[in-house]
Amino acid sequence: MQEEFISSKQNAKVKNWRKLKTAKGRKQQGLYMIEGEHLIEEAVRSGVYLEAIILNETYEGAYPTGFSTYRLAAHVFESLAETDSPQGILAILGAQSRFNAAEDFQQLLAKPGDAINRWLLVDGVQDPGNLGTIIRTADAAGYRGVVLGTGTVDLYNDKVLRSTQGSHWHIEVVELPIETAMQTLQGAGIPVLATALHREARDYRTLDYAAGAPLALVVGNEGQGVQAKLIEQANLSVFIPMPGQAESLNVAVATGILLFAL
Amino acid sequence: MQEEFISSKQNAKVKNWRKLKTAKGRKQQGLYMIEGEHLIEEAVRSGVYLEAIILNETYEGAYPTGFSTYRLAAHVFESLAETDSPQGILAILGAQSRFNAAEDFQQLLAKPGDAINRWLLVDGVQDPGNLGTIIRTADAAGYRGVVLGTGTVDLYNDKVLRSTQGSHWHIEVVELPIETAMQTLQGAGIPVLATALHREARDYRTLDYAAGAPLALVVGNEGQGVQAKLIEQANLSVFIPMPGQAESLNVAVATGILLFAL
Q1: Looking at the predicted structure, is the pLDDT value of residue B85 above 70?
Q2: 3 state DSSP class of B202
Q3: Residue B199 and which of B53, B91, B142, B156 are 20 to 30 A apart at CA?
Q4: What residue range is the signal peptide (chains A, B) (predicted)?
Q5: Best of A238, A250, A255 to mutate (most B CBs within 10 Å, chain B)
Q6: Which of the residues B38, B203, B257 would you substitute to probe the A interface, choosing the one with the greatest number of A C-beta atoms within 10 Å?
Q7: From A114-128, A197-211, A217-231, B166-180, the region with the lowest mean pLDDT
Q8: Residue A219 three-state SS
Q9: Has residue A97 got a pLDDT over 70?
Q10: Residues A179, B106: Cα–Cα separation, whole Å
Q11: Collapsing DSSP states into helix, strand and coil, what is residue B255?
Q12: Which of B11-15, B79-83, B225-229 is least confident?
């Protein structure tokens, strides 16, 4: 396929792509942008819809063929890139169908996939690096999916995407208020555990779930943790005892400890 | 104590403080800079040497008293701050005595403290957020200290400090080539485990160390992992089996899983 050269920032395509830098623009167009050779390769391997490959005029690296490809003058390319030292390659992808009605989630639960029926519920995580790492960890642990609650940073934020390393293409991503997701899970007979920061909760080391038993875990905001009303709604609240002096663990680290221990 | 007002970026003190933004400047002056009310409170609580408190002229929040305090014109303050939206308060601290000779480390090992004699060895971790989170995790797990090997990002980098949340004041921080630290640990009869990315290593779930038994764990660079020569030098190499599709875990998450499981 031939490459189209674009030399102006005012080009209509470029203007639309630039809008993908905001959550609003991504929602309107149903598209999002990723950066870097490795992540783009991973996207192609995952079979996600790829609308365009965008190269800096100076880019000499490899890129997947068979897609609409554009070469941009350096100053035009830089108006799109998010990182300070961009690798010179971007791709525009179609947003995944993200289940955001309780009925969709219910149907998903009713159809067990190959993965174990375990879900990670994310309540208000703010830091993009943390969210991306949490999704990557849930994928590594073989979880079936994550639910992103209200107030959690947008999945298609460029820093989130960089930290996921493509894991959001491997597992289900659901956008639902956490209380709704919990009701749906509980209605399907799946116990929901919430992480708590206090020692009245159950020490996670005393839990004994069969490997692969359906389960959901709620993790919370960096400062506040999981909301009190959600802890109350959960079947059980758990905490990680810390012998040292640190006040708390990073939320992605705490998630990793729990997902791999349960 | 009275506040001194500084209105010029060319002020000699300000010029010296600005040099603390580089690893070279920090090494020359034996000082480093931290930002934000919470971290500064934590520093005061930890009893670390505090040389100066620096406030933006617009700052109206709380700050510890009894220290040399400076108020800076906004443009002067901004020339020092590292974050995009600084909180308006900085502090200059004395660098901790960081043991960086093998003999010092040997003496440290010979004097068991209150903490369990467990050490985390960090081989070439590059991302400041990862290193800070790793130190915070080692603190939470009650480890006695961390060893930062050659090629690991500087402890006093502002992003590292923000992620440690003060944990580097709670545990020992040693700067030594990892092979030297390993030899010293092994000479003291402490087994050294290295994390490996391949499945020929031992599944960490099959290990059974008594709680509190002396132990050291080596974690490695984000891309390459622990260097092969170090894996060879270790008493044992371990890995974390991942049932999912992710290629790897974030190094701070992997560290958390291992520290809390061992």
Answers
A1: no
A2: strand
A3: B142
A4: none
A5: A250
A6: B257
A7: A197-211
A8: strand
A9: no
A10: 53
A11: helix
A12: B79-83
B148/B121 Cα distance (integer angstroms) = 6
Q: From the CA of B247, how many Å to the nearest CA of chain A?
A: 8
- Other CB atoms within a 10 A radius of the CB of residue A213 amount to 13
CA angle at residue B150 from B148 to B152, to 5 degrees? 60
Q: Which of A142, A247, A248 sits opposite B243 (nearest CB)?
A: A142
Which residue in B36, B154, B159 sits closest to B98, CA to CA? B154
Q: What is the pLDDT of residue B212?
A: 80
B-chain residues near A138 (CB < 8 A): 244
For position A231, what pLDDT does the model report?
Answer: 94
Burial class (CB in 10 A: 0-12, 13-18, 19+), A11: middle
Task: List the single best residue of A48, A117, A260 to mutate versus B (max B Cβ within 10 A).
Answer: A260
In the predicted structure, residue B84 carries a pLDDT above the cut 70: no
- Quote the ipTM score: 0.87
The per-residue pLDDT for A107 is: 86
CB contact under 8 A, A137 and B163: no
At residue A250, φ and ψ (nearest 5 deg) are -60, 140
Closest-approach residue (CA) in chain A for B144: A244
* Average pLDDT in chain B: 91
CA distance linking residue B53 with residue B40, whole number of Å = 9
Expressed in percent and rounded to 5, the helix, strand and coil fractions of chain A are 35, 25, 40
**Model confidence pLDDT, tens digit, residues A100-130:** 678 888 888 888 766 689 999 999 999 999 9
* Runs of H (alpha helix) within B79-227: 102-110, 128-140, 158-164, 178-187
Can you name the CATH fold of B102-261? Answer: Alpha/beta knot (3.40.1280)
Do B12 and B79 meet the contact criterion of CB atoms below 8 Å apart? Answer: no
What local confidence, expressed as pLDDT, does residue A106 receive? 87
Which residue of chain A has the CA closest to B166?
A246
**Residue contact B256–A256, C-beta within 8 A:** yes
Can you identify the CATH homologous superfamily of domain B3-94? Ribosomal protein L30/S12 (3.30.1330.30)
